[in-house]
Structure formats: C-alpha cells, structure tokens
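From the methods appendix. Each design record in this collection lists the tokenized structure first, followed by the designed amino acid sequence. Records were kept in a plain field format so they could be parsed without special tools. The example shown here is representative of the layout used throughout.

RECORD:
FOLD TOKENS (175 positions):
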C-alpha cells in the first residue's frame, strides 16, 4: 500500500511539472505589472505640496516609511506611477513612494545646488550679478531656456545656469 501511494505521488508530481513547463507563458499573467509600467514611464519634475511628506518603500500605507520630507515646494522627480502613488527620486538618488495628494504640479520650483551660486541680470555669465543664493535654497522657476533658468527667490529674480539647479532637465524649456 505504501508503495502504491509513493508511486501515485511520483506520477502526480511528474504531471504537475510537465503541466507547468507546457504552460510557462500563463505564469506571467500572475506577476505584478509595476516594473513593466515603470519602464514605459517618462520621468518629470514636480514639487511637494506640504511641509511634511512620508516617503514609503512601496505604493501604499502598508509599506514602511523610509524617510520624511519636511519642506514644501521641494523639487522631486517622478520616475514611476502605480495606482494613487508616485515613485520618486530625490536629488541624492534615493527612491521611494509618495501619495499623489502630496504632490503639486501647477508651479515649478528648483533647488540651487551643489554650492552657492550667483544669480544674474541676464542669461549670460558676464552680466551683472544681482544676488547670491546659498546651496539648498528653493526658487520658483519663471523661465528656462537652452542653458539658463530664471528663478524667483524671496521676491527677487535672476538667471542661473541650469547645471546649478535640481528640478529642471538640461534639455527642458519652460515659458
């Protein structure tokens, strides 16, 4: 009797393995599509709406908090989307997930980095300096052209080279 059970279990296992091998294409139907959707996603910059935003390890409250942003208007890069959450990348390369309600897209803001920079009267390195913005200062993006952006910081505006701000792509124009 034990020999019979063993023989049946071996045949059963054999048929299950054959079934799986023959139907391997159907297994992909059960794999989550998050990664595939992110591969087709075109990244873009937005900014935080509130002074407090929890960045999570996955798209939902059930995932643990990785860190917390504590600054409104902070520019972040959206690199993916799933349901009601965005996958984001921050200036230092760290990635996580934010709920869509924590993001605002109406205005564009950029952060001066990696060091303090002179903002100028015109988009020209030889034009008159207006003021110096410290590293980490956030300014409202008014205009971006080929290599320069005009930022407004505390009711003052000036031009800064694009490679000294986080929140605008090198080939992006904003009018």
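DESIGN:
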């Amino acid at each position: 009797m034990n020999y019979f059970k063993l023989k049946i279990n071996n045949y059963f296992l054999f048929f299950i393995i054959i079934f799986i091998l023959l139907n391997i294409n159907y297994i992909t139907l059960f794999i989550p599509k998050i990664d595939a959707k992110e591969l087709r996603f075109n990244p873009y910059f937005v900014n935080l709406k509130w002074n407090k935003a929890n960045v999570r390890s996955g798209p939902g409250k059930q995932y643990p908090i990785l860190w917390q942003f504590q600054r409104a208007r902070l520019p972040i890069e959206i690199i993916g989307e799933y349901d009601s959450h965005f996958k984001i990348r921050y200036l230092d390369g760290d990635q996580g997930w934010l709920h869509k309600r924590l993001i605002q897209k109406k205005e564009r803001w950029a952060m001066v980095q990696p060091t303090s920079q002179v903002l100028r009267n015109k988009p020209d390195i030889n034009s008159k300096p207006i003021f110096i913005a410290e590293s980490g200062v956030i300014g409202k993006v008014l205009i971006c052209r080929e290599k320069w952006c005009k930022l407004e910081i505390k009711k003052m505006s000036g031009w800064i080279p694009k490679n000294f701000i986080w929140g605008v792509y090198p080939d992006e124009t904003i009018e």
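APPENDIX NOTE: The chain is about 20% helix and 40% strand.
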